[in-house]
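step: validate -> pass
step: tokenize input -> pass
step: predict -> running
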Amino acid sequence: MTEYKLFIDGQWVDGGESMEVTNKYTQEVFAVLPTARKEDVDAAIEAAQRAVPLMADMPAYRRSEILGRAAVLISERKQDLAETIAIEAGKAMKFALAEVERAISTFTLAAEEAKRVHGETIPLDAVPAGEGYFGFWLRRPVGVIVAISPFNFPLNLVAHKVAPAIAAGNPVVLKPASTTPITAVKLCEILESAGLPRGTINLVVGPGSTVGEWMVTDPRVDKITFTGSPPVGEHILSVAGIKKVTLELGNTSPVIIAPDADLDLVAKKCAVGAYYNSGQVCISVQRIYSQKGISDPFTEKFVQASEAMVVGDPLDARVDVGPMIDPGEVDRIEGWVDEARAGGAQVLTGGKREDAVYWPTVLTNVDPEMKIVDQEAFAPVASVIPYDDFEGALEQADASDYGLQAAVFTRDIQRVFKAIKRLNFGGVMINETPAYRADHMPYGGNRQSGLGREGVKFAIEEMTNIQMVAIKLED
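step: predict -> pass
step: emit ->
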């Protein structure tokens, strides 16, 4: 068991009561670190506030160098970081390694984008009131950023908050998920080694009800970026005050399969999209709408692909599906599946558990009102739902309070553009599952799925303010 500390104002410091971090597969404690007290949170925000002018004045090439060096150091520690993710998050090693690779890309992209934070001129004389004026606007750092990240991507979703903040010239106070904080600790070690100045990255851990609340309500904070559940996002908006806020929230990701799709390919892609990280991904495949003429053969292939997923210890390189984040989450999804079964749903495969592991599960005969369809499952469970016509499938897919990402598999360009026009989602993936994300694309949701966009360039826009300059020219 290893002991870690908080990182505040360039120092590794003790805090309050110790918090245990477990191996999610064995449930054994492998690390401890202190919970932040109110005075620790105050010290972290104060340190970040002092660093605001330092970061704002840091030249772009210098910010780029630090971010680029961080990418190199992440690459050098790839195996250690992946093992940490596999242990504390329960993510299969193959996907943990992929997450580290994505974090390298995210920091590399941020290093590039740090050199592109600029504005443009405005022809003020386009209106009579602008005659005799010269105008341009700039992007200026917003100030102190609070970043609250989830457990399911303990490295790359931290990277998507921290790297753009640094690229834009902002100091950060980071609160990783209490179940997976050690990866963030190691990232802070890397950023310190990369040359990030004192006070520009600060790490505190603890419950959202205390540590998170202190952070988001503090008037010294200029921007909040949060990934998590819709209820918590709604609460943040209600208490934050006048601050910039980005929210990445939930989804009930739909997939529509047209009759012309390659069913073997779709079945395999949907199995990975539904079950990697035990389905604990906000864009995990959850609702699969298959046209009635192909529904039976697709379902058979999807069940086969689901049963081919290897379940077990995430540190085993052969494993595809490890444990969920805690046994309580297994209890929850087990209850949802049992409720669906009692309502007439059929479990074609899975529907069983072993400690913190829930087997990949395929359901049919579900109703739209069932929790397993209507609410975010966040578990390795997917439902296959037959449909009559494509227009009806689009209507069913869009019948959700959420709107993060959706997917359509078809070779018909007319169907593609119908889907793009009809689906009110932040992203529509064609011939790919909704679980697809490239780290430089704009990523975020509509409706209850959140506010704002991530993806390095777009996060930088959220983390800067536009400053307009108008200069009266001499007559």
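step: describe -> Residues 93-113 form the longest helix (21 residues).
step: cleanup -> pass
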